[in-house]
Amino acid sequence: MGIGATRNLKAAEEVAKITAIESRATGFNWNYSPLADVNTNPANPVIGVRSFGENTDLVSQMTVAQIKGYQKNGVIATAKHFPGHGDTSVDSHLGLAAVTYDRKTLEEVHLPPFKAAIAAGVDSIMTAHVIINAIDPELPATLSKKVLTGLLREEMGFKGLIVTDAMSMHAISEEWGSGPAAVMAVNAGADIVMATGTLPEQLETFDALNKALKSGQLSEKRVDESLKRIFDAKLFKYKLFKDRYTNPDKAAKIVSTPAYKQTAAEVARNSITLLKNNKVLPFNASDNKTTLVVGPKIYGSTSYIEDIAKAADDKSAGSITSFVTATDSTDTEIGQALQLASKADRIIVPTFSASGLPAGQAKLVKALQQSGKPVVAVSLGLPYDIQSYPEVGAYIASYAVERWGSPVPTSWNAAVEVIFGTQPGGKLPVSIEGLYKYGYGLSY
Questions:
Q1: pLDDT tens string 289-300
Q2: Domain Glycoside hydrolase family 3 C-terminal, which positions (predicted)?
């Protein structure tokens, strides 16, 4: 979503190019990226900032740019999660999601990024563990011949690799079992089954496919079709049987390339989206004021807020105080934060939500805002957090942490730079209902 906020297709391609070069150097030749999901549901618990945004054209263009960046540099790109996971309200890692929109919505909103990916020559597409009622109301896309063979192969003309999403996810394993589902997926049209999970689950998948082939439940013809596509990619296009080993010294040098880090920092700065500023920002980096950084644990870790405090310390001539609350800040912690605020001159409050913002975090921001000190809130995950504390004096979206807490320090470092005067470059890649429209973004 941060890349989407830059609106810069060249930057999107460059990020993918660098990722591909670093991936090949360290021995990886296939990336399950980019997301072609159009995140039309703000409450989506699993896609969120992994998507480029809510606009179909933006997602399509960014998807194509990244496919070019990966595949021109020797890494297979994967458009996912077909035919779209952006309008779900269930995390398919935990349960089976279904979308009830009609075929027209599917065609106009969710399929265009995949059509654009196919036109751009994407070499693989990943399936969604989601029931698409308009195509097959009974089976999720991963297991549906109507979706994988009927829609993707026959209607849309995709000739590349179809890979399933992880078969250990509860949407599949709890409903059908990893082994039986693997057979169903291949019969539906999948070429590669992502056999994740425990070793027994992986063995169950392998044994089920092996037995299905021997019994005739899975035909040799069907398996050979997939093998041909796999060998076409591995042998002929990507030549993966040449230079099969990586050089660790060379890899270390490539992933430490200063120009790559500079590019990442520049893209991050251009992604930071300033949505509100009531004469709060920028903070003066050269004065001797005390800055309080206070925010929540994220997935049990204090390191996110501590790292942001360190970034602020690197920028500010004044002193930095930091305090980490529980993920859902308690009244006692809010009281402690207010005591610290009384001794500070200005306040940075990072918040984090992967779906809905915990009530305690919103209460913390509101309490600090009432302290009378200049307050800037920084959303680390979804940009919608401000809906829970619209009265805050200044607000920045950084898109720096996704659903599982995977951090992008480059992004929150850029947010700190913006707080202390660097020009923000981002435009909102989603709309925030009742507050800000798609494309909104302030500058100094």
A1: 999 999 999 999
A2: 272-433
